[in-house]
Amino acid sequence: MSEAISPAACAALFTEARTHNGWLDRPVSDEQLREIYALLKMGPTSANCSPARFVFIRTPEGKEKLRPA
User: Fold this and answer.
1) Selected residue with higher pLDDT from 15 and 2
2) Which of 4, 13, 17, 21 has the fewest CB atoms within 10 Å, i.e. the most exposed one?
3) Inter-CA distances, 31 with 28, 37, 63, Å
4) 49 falls within a domain
5) In terms of domain of life, where is this protein from (predicted)?
6) Range of 51's domain?
């Protein structure tokens, strides 16, 4: 990398970022899921030794399968 990150970019990443806690009651398209996964799969895991696993669930039946017994 030959360019320094801007102060605004640093702030967006480290001091202004917040966890999203609101959801809209509408489906996410297949294309959006593909784009999201393309970003997620590049993220680090714990000491890079715990592979991340993602499950995309769309149906109430699928959600029920995740519910604890």
Assistant:
1) 15
2) 21
3) 8, 10, 21
4) yes
5) Bacteria
6) 28-69
> What total number of domains does the chain contain?
1
Tell me the two tokens of residue 16.
């202004």
Residue 6 domain-assigned (yes or no)? no
pLDDT tens digits for range 25-52 = 898 999 999 999 998 888 877 777 777 8
Q: How far is 62 from 21, CA to CA, in rounded Å?
A: 22
27 phi and psi, to 5 degrees? Answer: -70, 155
Instruction: Using DSSP, state whether 10 is helix, strand or coil.
Output: helix
Return d(Cα 16, Cα 8) in angstroms, integer: 10
Q: Is residue 14 part of a domain?
A: no
Q: With respect to residue 58, please indicate whether it lies within any of the assigned structural domains.
A: yes
Q: pTM higher than 0.90, yes or no?
A: no
Rg (CA), the chain: 17
Helix (H, G, I), strand (E, B) or coil at 31: helix
